[in-house]
Design goal:
By secondary structure, the protein is an alpha/beta fold. It folds into three domains: 3-86, Winged helix-like DNA-binding domain superfamily/Winged helix DNA-binding domain (Arc Repressor Mutant, subunit A); 91-161 and 267-294, 3-Layer(aba) Sandwich (D-Maltodextrin-Binding Protein, domain 2); 165-264, 3-Layer(aba) Sandwich (D-Maltodextrin-Binding Protein, domain 2). Helix content is 42%, strand content 23%. The protein is built from nine helices and 13 strands. It has helices at residues 3-15, 18-25, 29-43, 59-86, 106-116, 129-138, 200-212, 226-234, 279-294; strands at residues 48-50, 55-57, 91-97, 120-126, 143-146, 155-163, 165-170, 180-181, 190-193, 218-222, 240-243, 254-259, 266-273. The strands form four sheets. A five-stranded mixed beta sheet has the order 4-3-5-13-6, sandwiched between helices. Helix 5 (106-116) crosses helix 9. This is LysR family transcriptional regulator. It comes from Dendronalium phyllosphericum CENA369. Belongs to the LysR transcriptional regulatory family. One of its GO terms (molecular function) is DNA binding.
C-alpha cells in the first residue's frame, strides 16, 4: 500500500464519482478504478458500493476515511515541523551571557528573537566569559554573549555591541558631586575589580586605562559579577571602572560618573562553535546580526 493509493481513495470518497475524482487526480478513470480495487483487495474489505448511477462509501469505508484523513493531517503536520526545523524555527537553545549584557543588548536581542521565532525555547545561564568558553567546548551550551577577545580558533565570534567605560563611586565620595572625574585623582583609591581570568580583555583595558593616567590601581577587593562589584561600591569598599550600561542597574548608595580622559570602547561579542550545524543556532546568529546593525 502506498500513499498515492490512500490519496486516490480520499479523493474518490470526497467526489463519490469516478470521472470527477480521476479528473482531480489527473489520471484516466480506468486506472483509478483499478487502483481502488487493488486497495480493497489488500485491505480485505469493500470501500465503496458501486452502481451504474452512483458510488457510495460502505460503513467500513466511512470509518477508514476518517482514519486516513487523520493520517494525512499528521503527515502534513510532520512536514511542517520538519520544514520549520530545517529553517531553525523550532527547537531549543542554551544561551550563556555575562552579567553586564543583561543591562545593555541582551534584553532587546531576546525580545526580538522570541518575536521572530516563537517556536524556539530558550534556556539562559548567567556565566562569566571563561565559563562560557568552557561550556561551549563541552557542548553544554549553543551560543554565548561574552567579553572579547577570544583566542581559541574552534569558535566563531563577532562584536555586536560597544560602549564606554564609566566610574562607579560611593555616593558619599568626595568627588560624587563632580560631573567629570579625572582618573588620576583616584590614584590612591581602593579599586574593586574582577579576577583577570574571568574576562582578560576587559580587565586589561581597565588596567591600561589607569596606567595611561599615571598609576596602577590598588585592587583591594575582587568580585565575579558586575552586580556584586556595584554592591561593594555602595558599601563604600572602593571605587570601580565599569561598562556604561551598568547605569541601568539602579543601586542605592552608588553614583556613576563620566571619565574625563578618553576611554576605549568595551565590547560584547556573540560566540558559537565553528563546526555548528544546527539551523536553530544559525537562525539566532542571523537575527542577532540584523538587530545589531540597527542599534
Amino acid at each position: 500500500m502506498e500513499l498515492r493509493h490512500l490519496r486516490y481513495f480520499v479523493t474518490l470518497a470526497e467526489e463519490l464519482h469516478f470521472g470527477r475524482a480521476a479528473e482531480r487526480l489527473h489520471i484516466a478513470q480506468p486506472p483509478l478504478s483499478q487502483q481502488i480495487r487493488q486497495l480493497e483487495k489488500e485491505l480485505d474489505f469493500e470501500l465503496f458500493h458501486r452502481t451504474k448511477r452512483n458510488v457510495q462509501l460502505t460503513a467500513a469505508g466511512q470509518v477508514f476515511l476518517g482514519e486516513v484523513q487523520q493520517i494525512f493531517r499528521q503527515l502534513q503536520q510532520a512536514i511542517e515541523v520538519g520544514q520549520q526545523t530545517s529553517r531553525g524555527e523550532v527547537g531549543k537553545l542554551i544561551i550563556g551571557f555575562v552579567s553586564s549584557a543583561g543591562y545593555n543588548i541582551l534584553p532587546i536581542l531576546l525580545r526580538n528573537f522570541r518575536g521572530s521565532v516563537p517556536g524556539v525555547s530558550l534556556e539562559l545561564h548567567e556565566l562569566t566569559t571563561d565559563l562560557q568558553l568552557e561550556w561551549l567546548r563541552q557542548g553544554r551550551m549553543d551560543v554565548g554573549f561574552l567579553r572579547p577577545p577570544v583566542e581559541d580558533n574552534i569558535f566563531s565570534w563577532e562584536i555586536i555591541f560597544q560602549e564606554s567605560l564609566i566610574l562607579a563611586l560611593p555616593e558619599t565620595h568626595s568627588l560624587a558631586n563632580k560631573s567629570y572625574i579625572c582618573l588620576r585623582s583616584l590614584a590612591n583609591e581602593p579599586f574593586i575589580l574582577f579576577p583577570r581570568i574571568l574576562a582578560p580583555g576587559l580587565y586589561d583595558l581597565i588596567i591600561s586605562l589607569c596606567q595611561q593616567a599615571g598609576f596602577s590601581p590598588t585592587v583591594t577587593q575582587e568580585a565575579i559579577q558586575m552586580q556584586t562589584i556595584v554592591s561593594l561600591v555602595a558599601a563604600e569598599m572602593g571605587v570601580a571602572i565599569v561598562p556604561a550600561s551598568l547605569q541601568n542597574l539602579q543601586r542605592t548608595g552608588v553614583v556613576y560618573k563620566t571619565v574625563q580622559e578618553s576611554t576605549p570602547k568595551v565590547s560584547i561579542a556573540m560566540i558559537w562553535r565553528k563546526n555548528e550545524t544546527s539551523p536553530t543556532v544559525q537562525k539566532l546568529v542571523e537575527i542577532v546580526r540584523q538587530i545589531a546593525k540597527q542599534l
